[in-house]
Design a protein that fits this description.
Layout (H helix, E strand, L loop, with lengths): L7 H48 L4 H43 L25 H10 L4
Helix pairs in contact: 1-2, 2-3
Keywords: Membrane, Transmembrane, Transmembrane helix
Length: 141
């Protein structure tokens, strides 16, 4: 790609590059949404199973191991989901940093993302959706 920001060919190539990065960001957002959906659905099923066990008149030696298994399964799902969400945060942060470094001079379009997190290294990891598995997983005994 030419470094002359004045040609139409450069502007078209820069727009295409921005669309490619934008599509990768949309993909990361979709993956993040799927991970949160799976987390909440699975934890909801476990919570319902736990509630069903509590409401039954089962002997303690039967109910307690089953309840513990449900709690540990919930904790495991929360940890796995947190790792996936952090991976998505890393990928998004890398895409935004890559764009900031490689943004063509000829690009005259809008920002690559509507609102980017602050530039501090810790910011992408301290989002609400990354705390959801911590809160859900923290309820296990």
């Amino acid at each position: 790609m030419s470094t002359n920001p004045g040609t139409d060919i450069d502007r078209v190539a820069a727009r295409q590059m921005s669309e490619d990065v934008r599509q990768m960001l949309v993909h990361e957002s979709t993956v993040l949404n799927h991970r949160i959906t799976w987390l909440t659905a699975f934890e909801g099923f476990l919570f319902a199973g736990f509630g069903a066990l509590v409401s039954k008149e089962l002997p303690r030696e039967t109910a307690v191991p089953m309840m513990k298994a449900i709690c540990y399964a919930g904790l495991g799902v929360a940890v796995i989901s947190l790792l996936g969400l952090l991976g998505s945060a890393i990928a998004t942060d890398r895409l935004l940093n890559w764009w900031n470094v490689h943004k063509p001079d000829a690009y005259d379009g809008p920002g690559i993302i509507g609102w980017a997190l602050p530039s501090q290294r810790w910011a992408p990891y301290l989002t609400v959706w990354n705390f959801l598995p911590v809160v859900v997983g923290g309820t296990a005994p």
